Amino acid sequence: MTNQKWLASNIGHAFKKYRTDMRMLWDSYTLIDFYFPHIKEKIIKNEIDLVKANPTYGQTTVRQLDRGETLGRINRLLEKENPKRILIDAVARFEFYWGEIVTMVYKAYPHKLQSNKQSSNNVTDGTKLMSYIVESISREEIINKIIEEKVRSLFYGKPTDLFTKKSFKLEFADHFETNYKKELMFFSEITARRNLFVHNNGIIDSKYIKEASNSNYNIGEKIPLTENYLRGVIALLEGLSAEATSIIIENICGERVKGGRLKFSRKSFAYSVKNNYYEKLLT
For residue 63, which phi and psi values (nearest 5 degrees)? Predict the structure, then answer.
């Protein structure tokens, strides 16, 4: 098997797993959203036992929650924790997937690690490179360290850098900037909203306003996480990944995407863009 076919095959398998993970994530949201209201009804009617909370913080006593506490915990899970979990996990899974893909590309084609002098994303500057050489015992170890640093740099700057920055040498050219400006804008907002829930409990701050240019919210407001919005998050992260993954297989591996889940997801992405599906869900 040639290097190109090996890379195309492994990228295809990685996308299949990524797609499955994203859909299982959405299924988990749906399951909780569907079943827990029924559990609430049974608690109210005293038809099932109340939960016992295992001890935390070094305590030893198992605590029996009363009916009011249990219903309160369920309401919090349904209204706050479950939606927040889906947003945070979806973006994390997206970033993990792209870390995998970029690592595969650079291991197959180490010359892509060479930085242009004018690039601000130069992870192989003299000092750092010398450190890698001194601390490593083989050429392979040096390359692996440079790859690790390059992958980390994917998420240092703007979220859209992955799709637009030429220094990553993923052969996207101007494809996304030309054809998917609106989708990139939605992607930036999704990442900004994820950061908002991780770092500021979902309260709008100036950083979010700066990063989410399409937002109509004001500083100090609590940003919502509706079911439609979360559906749009899963769909867009899968769609953008399908389009970008297909381009890598075509332009770097020199292979055609002949069928399977990747081709289906790419077609779904094109259809969704054409019919403003993401705009309807994410605005």
Answer: -105, 130
- Which residue's structure tokens are 């390359």? 143
The per-residue b/e assignment along 19-35, b for 16 or more CB within 10 angstroms, e otherwise, is bebbeebbeebeebeee
The mean pLDDT of 249-266, rounded to a whole number, is: 95
Q: What is the pLDDT of residues 140-197, one digit of tens each?
A: 777 888 888 888 888 888 999 999 999 899 999 999 999 999 999 999 999 999 999 9
CA–CA separation, 250 and 7 (whole Å): 11
pTM above 0.85?
yes
Output DSSP code: residue 46: T
Domain boundaries, the chain: 3-282
CA triple 157-114-257, angle to 5 deg: 75
Burial 174-205 (b: 16+ CB within 10 A, else e): eebeeebeebbbbbbbbbbbbbbbeeeebebe
H helix count then E strand count, the chain:
12, 2
CA 246 to chain CA centroid, nearest Å: 17
- pLDDT score of 65 more than 50: yes
With contact defined as beta carbons under 8 Å apart, do 223 and 204 qualify?
A: yes
